[in-house]
UniProtKB/TrEMBL annotation:
Enzyme Commission (EC) number: 2.7.13.3
Protein's name according to its UniProt entry: histidine kinase
PROSITE patterns: HIS_KIN
Ranges where the Histidine kinase domain occurs: 248-458
Superkingdom classification of source: Bacteria
Coiled coil: 215-242
Length: 461
């Protein structure tokens, strides 16, 4: 039960109420001691007044008066004269003297606690002011045993009463907390469980009902979060369906465009001046459309397969990339340089690493070709104790601000007109699959540098 909110609240309430009762108990016992001693002084004064009224009291009556007052001796000071009014044998020497006329609360509490925890009986002297100013002072000697017994009995009654009050108060607060806090919280938890079981079902969205401000704010926040999440899930589902449809369309469209591309190859052989002038533009448009379809299909795959990691010669992979892109960029004045040390070996999937380098290199030379200025695309590599570092640099015009802001975001990071922005997104995903990272080192009028970091250990960089 203590692991529940209401159970802990019940226990804490009981403890706090008992602590409050303890703070009340100490001054209460001190007050009881003062009243007890004052009562004995008053009884002694009444007994002494009876003796003063009749100076011929017998010894038996005097002893009875002292027993009723529960004291041994009574000294009364009247008119500056100190007079032993009543007396009897004292069983032992007086151990302490207490003046009740001008004593601070701290001293009274200290003396009460000292008496409460002192076992055995002692004889003490108590001094006080007579009732109704019937003298200057009254002084009695008395035994502490009955005083301590009375204090213990009073304290026990106080403790029992405190326990009853604590239990009753805790039960009342327990019921109040159950009604005001715990049940509304349990209702919120039930809504959360129902929503987690079927987040697309709008009936699982909570309806704020709590009257406590903080709980109502929590319910309203949960309602807002559930509503937004439901909308996001529906939008995600629609986007997934749309993506599947686009992939199918792109697949068929790619086949159609491939056929159209074959026809354009023949059109380029025409000697008609108009056809000769328009054919390159048509070929370029169809080529870009085919490239976009292929990129969309590649990105639209549900998940890239996990890389098959082996130690491979990086220079061989770079040679394949350079050979492929040299052929693709034969009409542009682009130079490809392979500066990878022949002996350098990296742990990677050769096919996926080829795709990464191909996407980055293709973006680089296409950016240079768009300026119609000769340029260089260089691929270099180095290693240290922790990682392999592969750099792809170019002498192109640099990336525009929009491309930098969404560099690895699909369909938004395109750096050239007509680009899909998928090349770098696919490359970054493949590098992450190797446990590495693809980052932009620098870009500007002097060129652009990308860095591929592949870790040598089992963890990340």
């Amino acid at each position: 039960m203590l692991n529940t909110l209401s159970g802990r609240f019940l226990a804490l309430t009981t403890i706090f109420v008992m602590l409050a009762e303890v703070l009340i108990f100490v001054p209460s016992v001190a007050r009881f001691r003062v009243d007890y001693l004052t009562d004995r002084l008053e009884r002694a004064q009444i007994a002494s007044l009876a003796l003063l009224a009749d100076d011929m009291l017998s010894t038996e009556l005097e002893r009875e008066l002292l027993e009723n007052a529960e004291v041994y001796n009574v000294v009364l000071r009247r008119d500056e004269v100190r007079q032993l009014v009543l007396s009897s044998p004292i069983p032992e020497p007086i151990s302490a003297t207490y003046d009740m006329r001008e004593t601070s609360a701290v001293v009274l509490i200290r003396d009460a606690l000292s008496r409460l925890f002192t076992t055995g009986s002692q004889v003490i002297r108590v001094i006080g002011a007579p009732v109704r100013d019937a003298g200057l002072l009254i002084e009695v000697t008395m035994e502490t045993g009955p005083l301590r017994d009375a204090m213990l009995e009073f304290g026990l009654r106080i403790l029992i009463l405190s326990a009853v009050i604590s239990a009753f108060t805790a039960l009342l607060l327990f019921g109040a907390v159950r009604v005001v806090l715990v049940r509304p919280i349990e209702g919120v938890v039930d809504y959360m469980r129902r929503y987690a079981a079927a987040p697309e079902d709008a009936r699982g969205i909570i309806t704020p009902r709590a009257k406590v401000r903080e709980l109502r704010e929590a319910e309203e926040a949960l309602q807002k979060m559930q509503t937004e999440l439901t909308h996001a899930l529906r939008q995600k589902e629609r986007l997934a369906q749309l993506g599947a449809a686009v992939a199918k369309v792109s697949h068929d469209l790619r086949n159609i465009l491939a056929s159209a591309q074959l026809f354009t190859d023949r059109i380029e052989m025409s000697e008609d001046p108009v056809v000769t002038r328009m054919a390159p533009k048509l070929v370029g448009s169809i080529t870009r459309a085919v490239s976009l379809c292929e990129s969309t299909l590649a990105f639209g795959r549900a998940e890239e397969p996990a890389p098959t990691l082996n130690m491979i010669a990086l220079a061989d992979v770079v040679d394949d990339v350079v050979a492929s892109e040299t052929l693709a960029a034969e009409e542009a004045e682009i130079t490809f340089e392979n500066d990878v040390p022949p002996a350098l070996r990296v742990r990677a999937d050769p096919e996926q690493l080829y795709r990464v380098l191909l996407n980055i290199a293709r973006n680089s030379w296409q950016a240079i070709a768009a300026t119609r200025v000769p340029g260089v695309v260089r691929i270099s590599a180095a290693e240290d104790d922790r990682s392999w570092r592969i750099e792809v640099s170019d002498t192109g015009p640099g990336l525009p601000p929009k491309a930098r802001d969404h560099l690895f975001t699909p369909f938004q990071g395109g750096a050239r007109k007509g680009g899909s922005g998928l090349g770098l997104a696919i490359a970054a995903e493949l590098v992450r699959g190797h446990g590495g990272a693809l980052s932009l080192v620098s870009t500007g009028p002097e060129g652009t540098v990308f860095l591929i970091s592949l870790p040598k250990g089992d963890g990340g960089l």
